[in-house]
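[User] I have long wanted to understand how a fold can be written as tokens. Those tokens are not coordinates but codes from a learned vocabulary of shapes. Could you go through the record with me and say what the backbone is doing? Thank you; the sequence and its tokens follow:
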Amino acid sequence: MIFSIFSPVFFENSFGQQQISPHRQWKQSADPDTLVCKQDHLLLQKSNGNPACVLPSTYLKLIQRGYGNYDASIMSKRPAMMYTLMQNMVSNQNIMYHWHEMMQKNPRIMMDTVDDWVSQMKDNPVLLKNMLGPMTSDPQLREMMIDTMKNNHHMENSLKMNSQWMDSVHHPMINSEMDQRMHHSTCSWCPDYQMSISEESFTGFDYDGIINMMHNMWTNSGISKDMNKIMLQNPSHMANMSEQMMEPMLNAIMDDEDLRQRMIDLLLEHQDFMNTVRHENIETEN
């Protein structure tokens, strides 16, 4: 029953070893800036106006179900708490599905996001690997990736002028079983991830609470940049995100000359990917 799950006892148990609950702190001072939660717990304003300290997963469920509200002023004064919230959001497939969907419908947010991705990947090459790794390692994503590459004229021209690439795509295909062993033992840039779509339905998803939280984050440039970095650092998230919006993700890389060349170099090291593009008629047009 909903009543038993979200009863006062539930909230009080969330405080663990905390000596004074947020509700008691609130009664003593009525100043939200003075409220303290124990480590790894988030401060939430419940729908009735009272504060509570809850685990990140509970925080998201309460907002999603309309039992609490995201408060930007509370989080802006607690950076560590905000970072914990963003990490848990990125790991939540339900919420991020809607985040990606909303982002695709908002050209300005999409453009700002991909521009920020490019900037961060140029500063940190590992982030480029995190984006490409899941795409190249999964057969279905790999096929989608190849189609996207063929439709990008910057990438097409770069590949035609790259002698190493053109030689490689016409080499005999490496034995698949042998290649699989080589791939797992030598491909240092391929991150580990688990590609799984949540079986949870999106029923009961409260759009108002979650969308309000997303818009608050999008309008804060500092939070947006942190969120983009957390997304790039999470290969499992990038794998699921690739299914929804691979084209804008890859085009952001391929339209940048520096990242495009890094991408080609990484793909040449990935035998599974190169086996897929071999004999795919990627030839120069005379």
In short: The longest strand covers residues 42-46. Strands lie at 42-46, 51-54, 68-69. Confidence is low (pLDDT under 50) at residues 1-18, 176-185, 197-203, 280-286.
